[in-house]
Design a protein that fits this description.
Rossmann fold, 10 strands, eight-stranded mixed beta sheet, single chain, Helicase, Ruva Protein, domain 3, two-stranded antiparallel sheet, alpha/beta, 12 helices, 38% helix
Length: 306
């Protein structure tokens, strides 16, 4: 069982808090609530994130939402290359200025949801010519804005060029949902666990940020599979089935699938039986392997199975 670290309620926030307030005063910045801007001010949490990523000088890091650059600087000290994607125009300009002396950091002003990770490879090639012509391998390390957590994870995990590892700070309840075991599974759990193994590294109180968010956070590590068990071309059909299963999560799986797929119960029952799943089960109890078996059983003749 993996150990979860709980950061104390009175974090070591002195120097980083002073630094954050100083930068905000210097550049006339105010945290933008609409972009979920809460800046990390605790050294213990900073080191916990970096440690969880297991960084070496061979690593290329994609950071999403670098904010004031606190994590960015620490990543640059340990990794070979850091590509930081910042949606806020003003922050991106400030980061370029503040981090100009750091020669292994590139700042991209854009929305990660509109960026194909494969397009970051030329940016890398400019800095590390040895990477040219190789498969772009990278890790994602980020304090994710809460409002894009689910779409950002899905975007990166479903990309043609997926990260080999993700270490992200997310809302505590979302982290618990993502890392849930059978019995407490959800559509989000399945969406992430199809592509990798998630687990919570540490729990982080709201006081570790400035300004404080209304909820606590958690550091989530996802060990991404080299090859997901469902091929990319089959993923839309697979998730159509999973969404149907969770369409009425409190109902028995046979009834929720019938409702979600618009099929009579008599057509759904044989699919569950073929997959070895009792009709009385509920969607939240199914394992990833059981969802895959159910998808395989439901694939019509002539359709590709996963």
């Amino acid at each position: 069982m993996k150990r979860v670290t709980s950061v104390r309620r009175h974090p070591k926030q002195g120097p980083l808090l002073t630094q954050a307030k100083g930068l905000m005063r210097q550049f006339g910045l105010k945290a933008r609530k609409g972009l979920g801007q809460h800046f990390l001010i605790d050294e213990t949490v900073l080191q916990l994130i970096v440690s969880a990523a297991g960084l070496t000088r061979d690593d290329v890091i994609v950071e999403i939402g670098p904010g004031l650059g606190v994590l960015t600087r620490e990543l640059a000290r340990r990794a070979g290359q850091v590509i930081a994607v910042e949606i806020d125009n003003k922050l991106a300009a400030i980061l370029r200025q503040a981090l100009a002396p750091v020669n292994n950091v590139s700042i991209i002003n854009g929305d990660i949801l509109n960026i194909d990770p494969a397009d970051l490879s030329p940016e890398l090639a400019e800095k590390l010519p040895a990477a040219t012509g190789r498969l772009f391998r990278y890790k994602v390390v980020a304090n994710l804005p809460y409002y894009i957590t689910s779409p950002a994870l899905r975007h990166l995990l479903e990309a043609t060029v997926r990260p080999e590892l993700m270490v992200v700070m997310v809302q505590k309840e979302v982290a618990e949902t993502i890392a849930a075991r059978p019995g407490k599974m959800s559509l989000l759990s399945v969406s992430v666990q199809l592509y990798g193994e998630p687990y919570i590294v540490g729990l982080v109180p709201a006081r570790c940020f400035y300004p404080e968010p209304e909820v606590d956070s958690a550091i989530l590590r996802i060990n991404v599979y080299r090859q997901p068990p469902v091929a990319a071309e089959n993923a839309p059909g697979f998730f159509r089935l999973v969404r149907a299963g969770f369409s009425a999560a409190r109902k028995q799986i046979v009834n929720s699938l019938a409702l979600g797929l618009g099929l009579p119960r008599a057509e759904v029952s044989p699919l569950l039986e073929a997959a070895g799943i009792a009709l009385q089960r509920r969607a939240e109890t199914l394992t990833i392997d059981e969802w895959i078996r159910l998808w395989q059983a439901s694939a019509r003749p002539g359709e590709p199975a996963c």
